[in-house]
């Protein structure tokens, strides 16, 4: 009976059978990928270049943009390459790397979203203590803890998953290597060990979610007590994008990993995976920029400066000639 050592490659799920649909899927995901790179790249550039945005909130948003870029770059380029070249294969090592990085980046992102909820709580409920509670050193430690916790969970899950013997073939019913799909190929009862690790992870996720909910309960109580309508509007503008991002991320991940096997199907699993691994990195920059006037002003200032510099360079080149 073959085991994991005899599996040299996996077969990922094909998006379509006909060449026309394959090219359509490639074009669609290429557009989403470029949008994610552009949106998150602009956030990185704007936050790095504008000194007015060197605050804890934008420091965490900077980290979130990096995680979003890493998450979508772990899964989508390989899927697009397979679609373009009409193949389904991924090496054993490549599959293990995908599982490691997907869990690492997604876990770090969720931890960072929890930290960002704490940032919003302190900013609105304890504004006088904001500087002392969220100084530069404290922010760096919290960001490092978010990245570190994601990495520890990723190593633990990847080591457990790929130590299992596999005897149910090598076809993964997903467009990237996903732990629930790898576990379906196992022929050993030791998969219960990974299930136990997943239960621990779900408990931690639930604990973070409760913390986020309680933080925003306190935030909204404080906002509703504000006498100034302008102050309430500014507070909601800071908090609502984060709440939308958290809701989108948590709901799609929980649906993908906690749905009952009786309602599982390849198309439903594919849709859930796209919703939690592709959609959030692409729409997060849009969500954060729609209601954030500071970010929009900084972006407009950067674009104006670039256009002005380009015009000056063109004028100087014309004078030299």
UniProtKB/TrEMBL annotation:
**InterPro entries reported in the protein's UniProt record:** GPCR_Rhodpsn, GPCR_Rhodpsn_7TM, Olfact_rcpt, Olfactory_GPCR
- Which Gene3D superfamilies does the UniProt entry name for this protein? Rhodopsin 7-helix transmembrane proteins
A Pfam match is 7tm_4
Q: Provide one Gene Ontology cellular component.
A: plasma membrane
Entry membrane topology? Multi-pass membrane protein
Task: Name the domain of life this protein comes from.
Answer: Eukaryota
Q: Name one GO molecular function term.
A: G protein-coupled receptor activity
Membrane-crossing residue ranges in chain numbering: 23-46, 58-76, 96-118, 138-156, 195-217, 238-258, 270-288
- Indicate the secretion signal residues: none
Instruction: Check the record and name the PROSITE patterns matching this protein.
Output: G_PROTEIN_RECEP_F1_1, G_PROTEIN_RECEP_F1_2
The UniProt record lists the G-protein coupled receptors family 1 profile domain at 39-288
Key words of the record:
Cell membrane, G-protein coupled receptor, Membrane, Olfaction, Receptor, Sensory transduction, Transducer, Transmembrane, Transmembrane helix
Q: Where in the cell is it found?
A: Cell membrane
Q: Which family does it belong to?
A: Belongs to the G-protein coupled receptor 1 family.
| PANTHER family per UniProt | OLFACTORY RECEPTOR
Question: What biological function has been recorded for the protein in this entry?
Answer: Odorant receptor.
Put simply, this protein is called Olfactory receptor
């Amino acid at each position: 009976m073959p085991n994991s050592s005899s599996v040299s490659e996996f077969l990922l799920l094909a998006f379509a059978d006909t060449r026309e649909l394959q090219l359509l899927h490639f074009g669609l995901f290429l557009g989403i990928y470029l949008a994610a790179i552009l949106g998150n790249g602009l956030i990185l550039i704007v936050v790095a270049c504008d000194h007015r945005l060197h605050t804890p909130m934008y420091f965490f948003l900077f980290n979130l943009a990096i995680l979003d870029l890493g998450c979508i770059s772990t899964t989508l380029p390989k899927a697009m390459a397979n679609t373009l070249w009409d193949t389904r294969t991924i090496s054993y090592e490549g599959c293990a790397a995908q599982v490691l990085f997907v869990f690492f980046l997604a876990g770090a992102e969720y931890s960072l979203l929890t930290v960002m909820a704490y940032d919003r709580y302190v900013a609105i409920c304890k504004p006088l203590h904001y500087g002392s509670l969220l100084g530069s050193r404290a922010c760096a430690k919290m960001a490092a803890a978010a990245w570190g916790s994601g990495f520890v969970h990723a190593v633990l899950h990847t080591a457990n998953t790929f130590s299992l013997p596999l005897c149910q073939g090598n076809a993964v019913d997903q467009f990237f290597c996903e732990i629930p799909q790898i576990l379906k190929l196992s022929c050993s009862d030791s998969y219960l060990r990974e299930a136990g690790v997943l239960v621990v992870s779900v408990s931690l996720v639930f604990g973070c979610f409760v913390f986020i909910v309680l933080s925003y309960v306190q935030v909204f109580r404080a906002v509703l007590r504000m006498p100034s309508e302008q102050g309430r509007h500014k507070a909601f503008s800071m908090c609502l994008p984060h709440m939308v991002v958290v809701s989108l991320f948590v709901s799609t991940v929980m649906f993908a990993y906690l749905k009952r096997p009786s309602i599982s199907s390849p198309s439903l699993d594919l849709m859930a995976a796209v919703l939690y691994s592709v959609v959030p990195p692409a729409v997060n920059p849009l969500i954060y920029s729609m209601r954030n006037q500071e970010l929009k002003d900084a972006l407009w200032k950067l674009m104006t400066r670039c256009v002005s510099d380009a015009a000056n360079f063109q004028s100087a080149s014309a004078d030299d000639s």
